Amino acid sequence: MRSRSMPIIRFVREGKDVECKQGENLREVALREGMELYGLKGKLGNCGGCGQCITCFVGIEGESKVGALSPRTEVEEIKLKRRPENWRLACQTIVMSSVIVVTRPQEALLNAKSRLEEARAQKLS
């Protein structure tokens, strides 16, 4: 049974909802829960969460409300300059309330449109 006060992270690619504490780091939650956060480059070498390698980016879909995540950091603004606006570095992102996440957004998501619509249609709480 889930607590109403704890945020839910809906990982679309993995088809899994994960409960976390408010203020937790998105990268840490994803790794703890066994999510495949990194593509090949990130598996071969990542910075361990310092925001330098930019291999832990995720797509944030339909952010449930303003302030669901911490604002982009200065590191993110620099490193994600030419990336889509909804991309974040998981290592720099703090979860404040429930949110929908696509891991490895640079890789094609099978049946992306229908999976995203379904993820948005289901209540997050």
Question: In words, what does this structure look like?
Answer:
There is one protein chain. A five-stranded mixed beta sheet has the order 2-1-7-4-5, with helices on one face. Strands 3-6 form a two-stranded antiparallel ribbon. A hairpin with a 4-residue loop joins strand 1 and strand 2. The protein starts with 7 loop residues before the first strand and ends with a helix. The chain has one domain: Roll (Ubiquitin-like (UB roll)). Helix content is 22%, strand content 20%. The model has no long low-confidence stretch (mean pLDDT 89). The protein contains four helices and seven strands. The longest helix has 10 residues. By secondary structure, the protein is an alpha+beta fold.
CATH class: Alpha Beta
Radius of gyration, taken over Cα atoms and rounded to an integer in Å: 14 Å
**Terminal residue distance:** 12 Å
Question: What is the H/E string?
Answer: EEEHHEHEEEH
- Strand sequence of the main sheet, in spatial order? 2-1-7-4-5
Record field, number of beta strands: 7
Structural class: alpha+beta
Query: What is the helix content?
Result: 10-25%
Count of discrete domains = 1
- Overall mean pLDDT: 89
CATH domain fold name: Ubiquitin-like (UB roll)
At CATH level 2, the architecture is: Roll
CATH superfamily, by name, is Beta-grasp domain
Tell me what portion of residues adopts beta-strand conformation. 15-25%
Outline the fold blueprint.
Blueprint: E1 8-11, E2 16-19, E3 24-25, H1 26-32, H2 40-44, E4 57-61, H3 74-79, E5 87-89, E6 94-95, E7 99-103, H4 112-121
Parallel strand pairs: 1-7
Antiparallel strand pairs: 1-2, 3-6, 4-5, 4-7
